[in-house]
């Protein structure tokens, strides 16, 4: 699980790397990430899943919808990284997403929030305020808005994936959801001038990393760990993701963090770690 979180922590830096070494827009990068993931996933699902029961049409449509929401969340995150760097968008998306999921469980499913959930929400909102008020000058209002949108769409994914995941295998769901994300991004890509081509060896390396390593390998590790680890442990391990992204941003992309953004990030991650332990859905993003 820790390795999956470390790999997810490279999403933002890898997206920034692709932007530096190609002419791809965030929309095009999102599409290429999904395309390089969906092909091997679909092939594996077809081979491995021959003996398994086929999911119903309703479940397939549900999986496609889950993937579409996930794809839009990733698109918003990539655009936020291009607009405002790596560190702040990652902290906002990873910190706010699980909190909004907890709120959604209360509003949609009628789960009464306990004191710990309410306290976590207050701490997370305080951290978000610090991130916005004391962000580096490179962070824009649009970048923050896109980061919040990524967190909102992540929460929508987390709240909808449960019923679908209980009706089909993890492999089938991952393949179908990835296909759904690809279909959701495709119209935006066509409106953006087409898929484009990475064009350089460095660009292809970044795209393949996003598709194969981050999507296929990391999600396989995540689902495997989720079968044995308590959700509390998973949530804490997931906190490695924004920390790794922030560290890579400072070391390799010359980003600077103010005291306010560090404190705000710590508050948001603390809120996630303190979130209720029995029914959380781990991860951003992904």
From TrEMBL:
Topology in membrane:
Multi-pass membrane protein
The cellular location(s) given in this protein's UniProt record come to: Membrane
Record's GO cellular component terms: membrane
Main site of residence?
A: membrane
Q: Name one Pfam family in it.
A: EamA
Name it.
DMT family transporter
UniProt KW keywords: Membrane, Transmembrane, Transmembrane helix
The protein's organism comes out as: Solirubrobacter phytolaccae
